[in-house]
Amino acid sequence: MQLLAISGSLRAHSSNTALVHAVARVLPDGVTFRIFGGLALLPAYNPDLDVDPALPPVAEWRAEITGADAVLISSPEYAHGIPGVLKNALDWTVASGEFVNKPVAIVNASAHSQFVLDQLRETLTVLSARVVVAEALPLTFRPADASELLADDAASTVLRAAVASLVDSATPD
Ligand SMILES: Cc1cc2nc3c(=O)[nH]c(=O)nc-3n(C[C@H](O)[C@H](O)[C@H](O)COP(=O)(O)O)c2cc1C
After folding, report:
1. Which segments of the chain have a pLDDT < 50?
2. Ligand 1 center to 9 CA (angstroms)
3. Burial grade of 12 (CB within 10 A; 0-12, 13-18, 19 or more)
4. Are 96 and 60 in contact (CB under 8 A)?
5. Fewest CB atoms within 10 Å of the CB: 16, 19, 56, 70?
6. What SS3 state is found at 125?
7. CATH class of 2-170
8. 32-48 burial, b for 16+ CB within 10 Å, e for fewer?
9. How far apart are the CA of 70 and the centre of ligand 1, in A?
């Protein structure tokens, strides 16, 4: 089983990127893991650029989703919404449909955010993804790396449960 993880933050010391790296440490056996790091390389979505064959960064993004059995997205909230780079990436899949039936877990590293999880759920649902988890980790600090995050028992428990649900939903009966 192949799991693709995406951080919605481009910040060098992002807590959401730390969360994505923590996922790699809590995976069950048999799950291979990739991080998509190309959000900033995608052009601003423009239907006039949504051509066949796709522009190379767009083709790479779409191929990463297609090749994954499940996707985990960890994103901060910006201005009560989805960070522009992440929403832009999702917009590039509207017409091409890579998220159709794809199991997706949405998490974030901030218990303070109020809107981003629901907005991601809404957008991914309209893309026909199967959102299996949408949950903020109960962190009271901003973790600098995966080790710091996993040392927090409450956050680690929520993350392990989210990953287990995602893997379970992507595993054939
Ligand atoms: C431009 C900007 C807008 C933000 N807007 C919100 C917001 O609306 N609600 C919120 O809870 N936090 C907001 N934040 C705080 C971030 O969500 C928070 O710092 C988060 O931990 C950053 O994630 P990162 O560590 O992965 O970069 C904002 C931060 C920035 C830089």
Report:
1. none
2. 9
3. exposed
4. no
5. 56
6. helix
7. alpha beta
8. ebebbeebeebeebeee
9. 26
Ligand 1 pocket test, candidate residues 21, 87, 113, most atoms within 8 A of CB: 113
Decide whether any atom of ligand 1 lies within 6 Å of the 113 Cβ. Answer: yes
Q: What tens digit of pLDDT does each residue of 48-81 get?
A: 999 999 999 999 999 999 999 999 999 999 999 9
For tokens 């799950």, the residue is: 31
136 - beta bridge partners?
108
Name all contacts of 154-158 with Cβ < 8 Å and 24+ positions apart: 156/22, 156/26, 158/107
Question: With b meaning 16 or more CB within 10 Å and e meaning fewer, what string describes 63-100?
Answer: ebbeebbbbbbbbbbbeeebbebbbbbbbbbeebebbe
Q: What are phi and psi of 38, to 5 degrees?
A: -105, 20
Q: Is the peptide bond before 138 cis (omega within 30 degrees of 0)?
A: no
Domain residues of the chain, as ranges? Answer: 2-170
Question: From CA 161, how far away is CA 129, in angstroms rounded?
Answer: 20
